[in-house]
Amino acid sequence: MPKSRTQLKKLPTPTQERTVVIVKPDGVKRGLVGEIIRRFEQRGLKAVALEMFSATKDQIDGHYPKAEAWITRLGTKTLDTYNQYKIDPKKELGTADPFAIGSKVRGWLLDYMTSGPMVKMIVEGIHAIDMVRKICGHTLPNKAEMGTIRGDYSVDSPAAANRDQRGIHNLVHASETPEEANHEIEYWFSPEDVYEYKRAEEDIMF
Q: If we measure between CA atoms, which residue out of 139, 120, 130 comes closest to residue 178?
């Protein structure tokens, strides 16, 4: 016998997540801010905070982790690319130690992120953290799939960037984990920067 209307319960919906997206200096200079926002909005995500700004090195230094594991991972990404293309890291960088390489890369990243204005935003929606990173694509543009932001608009790689002693031009930053998203929201935004609103199609899409 079918349940009565009063007995039916609405299934719980996934948590509405928030994540931080920063359009980096190369994305701003190339006029891709609107396109990047469009990619998120067409997926059903929405910007609830949005601002153009210029960051100081101290601000960027506080934005990126200083943990040895995180820095080592930066170096490991470079070593993976060098191995793939048969490049000797000792000839290129004077070392094959992933932490030492990661420390160099982090320093170049600070220079890159302070080289011009950027756009920061909070993006909200179902599984926003994973969705945004999927839309952005692999952090190394040479490995990003076509159809993603980085895959469609960037061709950079660690091999090219490190040779020029600069950060990788990969257009956009997106929080990687809920912990990282929470830190970055508190770090870059005040409560009054965030707006609550409902998109017209939310009742249909969700």
A: 130
